[in-house]
Amino acid sequence: MSVRVFLVDDHALFRAGVKAELDTITDEVDVVGEAGSVGEAVAGIAHHKPDVVLLDVHMPDGGGAEVLRQIRTKIPEVTFLALSVSDAAEDVINVIRAGARGYVTKTISSQELVRAVVRVSEGDAVFSPRLAGFVLDAFADRPGAAPISDPELDLLTPRERDVLRLLARGYAYKEIASELFISVKTVETHVSSVLRKTQLSNRYELSRWATDRRLV
């Protein structure tokens, strides 16, 4: 039988793209519903009772962790797989601690996403390359485990971190805007805010700062 999947992402265009792609390439998964906010997600998951929820990490009204918090106690049998543009350690750890079974980034191919959905539905934990290390470090019961918080990094909002990560990878403002489904003006606003909070003066200094914190 197909794995019944529910999509949660605040970008309708992205949801439509994922649904169309999954419907086209495989019979292994069946997208039974979608939502663009925490409230819609909680109601939709409760109604459809899917096998797997593909869950965005950052949304304006609370994000994936809030969906997990509200659903885990009501429908514990539902499995969650985070699907996010972010590959920051703190985002990975927060959503796994909240109860997600895996975490993959939006750079994943359609075929890989299908495999990830099927695997988590069967009980496996699935992570994009290098993200598993964050989880192992955070949950290792040993002295010296890698820290998962940074006071300076905590000053940035989730969206500012997304912009910074792409900026540090060499993306132009227009490319960042396209990747994050925001305007170029909004990208400029976020960069200005990050520069102010980090007390740095240009994108090259920001790139080094982001690299030092394993954001890239």
TrEMBL record:
<feature type="modified residue" description="4-aspartylphosphate">
    <location>
        <position position="56"/>
    </location>
</feature>
<dbReference type="InterPro" id="IPR016032">
    <property type="entry name" value="Sig_transdc_resp-reg_C-effctor"/>
</dbReference>
<keyword id="KW-0597">Phosphoprotein</keyword>
<dbReference type="Pfam" id="PF00196">
    <property type="entry name" value="GerE"/>
</dbReference>
<dbReference type="InterPro" id="IPR039420">
    <property type="entry name" value="WalR-like"/>
</dbReference>
<protein>
    <submittedName>
        <fullName>Two component transcriptional regulator, LuxR family</fullName>
    </submittedName>
</protein>
<dbReference type="Pfam" id="PF00072">
    <property type="entry name" value="Response_reg"/>
</dbReference>
<dbReference type="InterPro" id="IPR011006">
    <property type="entry name" value="CheY-like_superfamily"/>
</dbReference>
<keyword id="KW-0238">DNA-binding</keyword>
<dbReference type="InterPro" id="IPR000792">
    <property type="entry name" value="Tscrpt_reg_LuxR_C"/>
</dbReference>
<feature type="domain" description="HTH luxR-type">
    <location>
        <begin position="149"/>
        <end position="214"/>
    </location>
</feature>
<dbReference type="GO" id="GO:0006355">
    <property type="term" value="P:regulation of DNA-templated transcription"/>
</dbReference>
<feature type="domain" description="Response regulatory">
    <location>
        <begin position="4"/>
        <end position="121"/>
    </location>
</feature>
<dbReference type="GO" id="GO:0000160">
    <property type="term" value="P:phosphorelay signal transduction system"/>
</dbReference>
<dbReference type="GO" id="GO:0003677">
    <property type="term" value="F:DNA binding"/>
</dbReference>
<dbReference type="InterPro" id="IPR058245">
    <property type="entry name" value="NreC/VraR/RcsB-like_REC"/>
</dbReference>
<dbReference type="InterPro" id="IPR001789">
    <property type="entry name" value="Sig_transdc_resp-reg_receiver"/>
</dbReference>
